[in-house]
Design brief:
Residues 68-87 are annotated as: Disordered. InterPro entries: DUF2274 (IPR018733). This is DUF2274 domain-containing protein. It comes from Chelatococcus asaccharovorans. The chain has a domain at 24-72. The protein has helices at residues 24-41, 47-61, 63-68. The longest helix has 18 residues, at 24-41. It has 87 residues and is an all-alpha fold.
Length: 87
């Protein structure tokens, strides 16, 4: 069994709603990941909670995106892991 996942415990964060469409296979994979994450961390969490954290982790680790960051005209540091947005 896997002892470690890329995602750690889910942090509390300010959120906004974003609707996306994903494949049936991706949804099944997200559900399986959430089940494994819940088992490893001892806290029940669903795919809808983990998906934003997965995206934040992906973006934070993308070297090309980090290299382009200064030319984006905004900072990704207003809230750890999130893009600047007008609310």
């Amino acid at each position: 069994m896997t002892k470690k996942l890329s995602l750690g415990p889910v942090p509390k964060a300010e959120t906004i709603k974003l609707t996306i469409t994903i494949s049936v296979q991706l949804r099944a994979d997200l559900d399986r990941y959430a089940a494994l994450h819940s088992e490893l961390h001892g806290t029940v969490v669903d795919a809808l909670t983990l998906a934003p954290l997965m995206l934040e982790t992906f973006i934070a680790r993308d070297k090309g995106f980090r290299a382009a960051r200064p030319s984006l005209g905004g900072s990704l540091n207003n809230r750890p892991g999130s893009l600047d947005e007008t609310r």
